[in-house]
């Protein structure tokens, strides 16, 4: 990609929460190709390579992932095939053909034992198969030698797909009482925030050739700011629904501990990520978690 040239951008995972928003936010930056699992099943290495060879992108954006955290405990092979092997194949291609790779990772690469927000320099240690598969994907990209941005995010929600926000909305209407974990901390992050900030980073990278160096590339945390629990997020969702319709009958929300809600995969207690590096390098400050939420 030379100066002034409009880059060719390929998005994997166009139907996911982040991928859907990226199709809109990145369309202004280059010539966009967006693929879902029907067009390219990234569990199949040959289809990945054939797709890349055919499109020949300047920027590969991997928004596809295996995200069923509990199911991954029994589908370890598939989780690693999608979250670790597929990014490695993309990164190897990017390294060979001098393309930029953009990849989305997770707070679940950490065990949650730290008392303060995790930084990009903290050593990962996952508690579950999902987190381990995503961490392996990160490492594979870094070891490939390709130019890359890895954005670690977490507690993602939106108005489509499957996520906590939509699940709680549904349960509020259907149940009399909802029990929600109150000892896991994080920052709920709107998928559109992630896509928008990704676009801002790439805009700077594309427009300012001086940014194209190894000092700017690498791993960045990308979440909304602030702190709450799943219980706190559920309460905010209930309050929002109540403001929209005061006559609506909604379930009560009861706080519980993680021990009272056993699941196949262990979750980190602390999922907070510091986004100071993003602000320092690119001048981008992420909004508080309630800001985009209140406008949905």
Shape: globular
String of helices and strands:
EHEHEHEHEEHEEEHEEHEHH
Helix content: 25-40%
Terminus-to-terminus distance? 37 Å
Strand content: 15-25%
CATH architecture: 3-Layer(aba) Sandwich
The number of domains is 1
Rg, Cα atoms, Å: 19 Å
Number of beta strands: 12
Which fold does the CATH topology refer to? Rossmann fold
Average pLDDT reading: 92
Strand order in the sheet with the most strands: 2-1-3-4-5-10
Fold and architecture overview:
The protein is 38% helix and 17% strand. The protein has 296 residues and is of the alpha/beta class. It has a 6-stranded parallel sheet with strand order 2-1-3-4-5-10, with helices on both faces. Strands 6-9 form a two-stranded parallel sheet.
Write the layout of secondary structure elements.
Elements (H helix, E strand, L loop, with lengths): L7 E5 L4 H9 L5 E5 L9 H11 L3 E4 L13 H22 L2 E7 L22 H16 L2 E7 L2 E2 L6 H11 L2 E5 L3 E2 L2 E2 H17 L10 E4 L6 E2 H15 L7 E5 L19 H7 L7 H5 L2
Helix pairs in contact: 1-6, 2-3, 3-4, 5-7
């Amino acid at each position: 990609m030379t100066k002034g040239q409009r880059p060719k951008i390929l998005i994997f995972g166009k139907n996911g929460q982040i991928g859907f928003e990226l199709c809109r936010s990145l369309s202004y930056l280059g010539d966009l190709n967006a693929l879902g699992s029907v067009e390219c099943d990234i569990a199949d290495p040959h289809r990945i390579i054939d797709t890349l060879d055919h499109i020949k992108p300047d920027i590969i954006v991997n928004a596809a992932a295996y995200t069923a955290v509990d199911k991954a405990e029994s589908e370890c092979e598939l989780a690693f095939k999608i979250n670790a092997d597929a990014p490695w194949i993309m990164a190897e291609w990017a390294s060979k053909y001098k393309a930029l790779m953009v990849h989305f990772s997770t707070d679940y690469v950490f065990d949650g034992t730290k008392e303060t927000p995790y930084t990009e320099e903290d050593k990962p240690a996952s508690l579950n198969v999902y987190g381990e598969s995503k961490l392996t994907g990160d490492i594979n990209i870094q070891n490939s030698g390709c130019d890359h941005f890895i954005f670690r995010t977490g507690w993602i929600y939106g108005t489509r797909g499957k996520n906590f926000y939509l699940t709680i909305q549904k349960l509020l209407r259907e149940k009399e009482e909802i029990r929600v974990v109150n000892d896991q901390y994080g920052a709920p992050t709107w998928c559109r925030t992630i896509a928008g900030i990704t676009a801002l980073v790439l805009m700077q990278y594309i427009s300012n050739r001086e940014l194209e160096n190894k000092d700017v590339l690498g791993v960045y945390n990308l979440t909304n700011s602030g702190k709450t629990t799943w219980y706190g997020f559920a309460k905010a969702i209930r309050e929002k629904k109540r403001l929209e319709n005061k006559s609506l009958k909604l379930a009560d929300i009861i706080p519980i501990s993680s021990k009272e809600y056993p699941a196949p995969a262990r979750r980190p207690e602390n999922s907070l990520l510091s986004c100071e590096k993003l602000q320092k390098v690119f001048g981008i400050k992420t909004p508080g978690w309630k800001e985009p939420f209140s406008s949905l």
